[in-house]
Every structure is written in C-alpha cells, then in structure tokens.
Design brief:
Layout (H helix, E strand, L loop, with lengths): L69 E2 L2 E2 L43 E5 L1 H7 L12 E5 L5 H5 L10 E2 L11 E5 L8 H18 L5 E5 L23 H12 L5 E3 L22 H14 L3
Parallel strand pairs: 3-4, 3-6, 6-7, 7-8
Antiparallel strand pairs: 1-2, 4-5
Length: 304
C-alpha cells in the first residue's frame, strides 16, 4: 500500500442564535390569561421558535415563573409572574409577563457551566504535540484530559485489545476521568483506501469507544494538522505528508451526518505555514505548534 500524510485546517465554529417565527416574535404574543392560583404560573403564554422564550401569564401570584424553549445546543429561560426573575442567556424579566431570550449555537455549551464532565482527546504523537503546547490554557483544564500513544492509528483504536488502550491518561479530569462523556478523536492511517473503508474503520472505532466508555454523549472527529491549504510541505516524495486525502474528509463528514447528532466533524485545522513542521511533517515545531494549540483550543473553548 502507498502512504499519505495529513493535517487539519482551522475554521471557527460559530453557534447560530435561534430565531422567532411569524407574528410570535418576542413582545408580540397573544394576551396572557388571568386568575392563576397562588404560587402557580399564569396561562396563555406563547412559545416562540427554536431557542425562543415563553411568555408568562399575568395571573399567577408572586413567585410563579415560566421557563422558555430550548435552543439547539443551549437553553433560554423565560419570563416570570409578578416580581420577575432574571433570565439565563437573555434579558432580565421585570414585572408581569417579562420575556427571557436565549439559546446557544449548535453544539454549544449552556451558560450554566461546562456541558461535559470529562472531555477526552484521543490520538497519537502529533495529537499530543498541540495538546501539550498550551491547548489546556484555552479550555477548562479540570474537564479535559489526553490519552495518546505513538503510531496509534484508527484500526488500533477500533481493536478493543489494541495497545493504545493501555496508554495512561495525561492531565486527568477532576471527575469522570475513567468514563469520559465526550471524545475528541484524531483519525489517522497512512494506508490509501476508499471512502467506504474509512467509514467502516471509523464506525468500528466509535463502537469500541462506546463499549469502553458507556457515558459518551458526543464524538468530535478530526484529522492531524494539515499543511497550509492542505498542501504538502518539505520533500514532496516523502512517504508521509501533511496532505489529507479527500476520501478521509468525506468519510468523517458522512459518519457525522449519519450519527443522529452523536458525531461531529471538527474544522479542517491547518498549520499557519510549512515552517510549523519538522521537514515534511507531520511532527510540529515551535512556534508553529503553539499557534496550532491556540487555534484548536479556541475552537473547543466554545464547545465544552
């Protein structure tokens, strides 16, 4: 088999705010009903579009509160009855029937704290290079850890008895370290293969992760850091390069699309320049690897 080399390009993920639909925009809801019982919520509020808030009725006694709709990846709490409360992720609800708006971007964390108890980055030597170059200074260190081993390719992680599973945890999470609920997986093999074979290997690895870590609620799939513009660096005849094959990118996208929200594809992170790499790569040198740690760290800081 021939071999190839990979590295991912940087693109920030931006969460989109949920929007209200039609005449049910905030402040344009049907009239609230009256006559609520003590400590209850008045009726008649209108629920808005995805991520929208819910209007509280005015009939509830002091202390009644209404909660709003849940946006994709986050939640907004709505207005309250007499003596309103402050809404999370939105405006303060004052007086009777105030409105709270909110909703984080797709896949984003809520405003109440980390979305995942333990995020585990899984990969090989090149994964450890950017992780140990300052990645944890951008994320919540208490909720992140690293498990890596040299030459641990996707087929090795797919094997429940594979050697990478014996690797020790680096910088363990303060809680949930033995059963992380989020996995960031670096997918790599130097074999040239069609997209379907990539998909089969990735899915097999994900099955093994789920068997090992039953609490996993999300996977993020990435490749190694690619060359600028996904081009080779250094010796173009090198047996390993920092150019990711299109079949792997397509396979990651397909697995994510078919996962029902369990699997996500990260941006295609790439090095700022070829000077980042030791020769043709994929191993990285300072200061380029520090810039990569910043790019990857800032992306995941918004998704933890």
């Amino acid at each position: 088999m021939t071999v190839w080399r990979s590295v991912l390009s940087s693109s920030l993920f931006v969460g989109a705010l949920a929007s209200c639909a039609g005449q049910n925009a905030a402040g344009d809801a049907p009239p609230a009903s009256t006559g609520g019982a003590p400590d209850s919520v008045g009726t008649g509020g209108a629920t808005l579009g995805s991520g929208g808030a819910e209007l509280a009725g005015t009939g509830g006694a002091s202390g009644g509160a209404a909660t709003g709709g849940v946006g994709t990846g986050g939640a907004g709490t709505g207005g309250s009855g007499t003596g309103g409360i402050e809404s999370t992720g939105g405006t303060q609800a004052g007086g009777s029937g105030g409105v709270g708006t909110g909703g984080a971007g797709t896949g984003g964390s809520t405003s109440g704290g980390p979305q995942f108890e333990c995020n585990q980055v899984v990969g090989l030597t090149v994964t450890s290079e950017w992780y140990l170059a300052g990645f944890e200074t951008y994320v919540d260190d208490a909720h992140w850890q690293l498990k890596w081993q040299a030459h641990s390719y996707v087929a090795d992680w797919a094997n429940p008895a594979g050697e990478p599973w014996n690797a020790e945890i680096v910088s363990p999470c303060t809680q949930g370290s033995t059963s992380p609920d989020r996995i960031v997986f670096t997918v790599l093999s130097w074999d040239v293969m069609p997209q379907q074979q990539w998909e089969d290997l990735i899915n097999s690895a994900l099955d093994t992760f789920q068997a090992k870590y039953p609490d996993v609620a999300r996977f993020d799939l990435m490749t190694i850091i690619r060359g600028p513009g996904n081009q080779k660096c250094g010796d173009p005849t090198a047996s390993e390069t920092v150019q990711i094959p299109a079949e792997l990118d397509a396979a990651i996208a397909a697995v994510a699309a078919d996962s029902g929200g369990l699997v996500y594809a990260t941006p295609k992170f790439e090095a700022p320049d070829c000077a980042t790499f030791d020769g043709a790569g994929p191993h990285m040198l300072a200061p380029g690897v520090n810039a990569v740690a910043t790019t990857v760290g800032e992306y995941f800081a918004d998704l933890q």
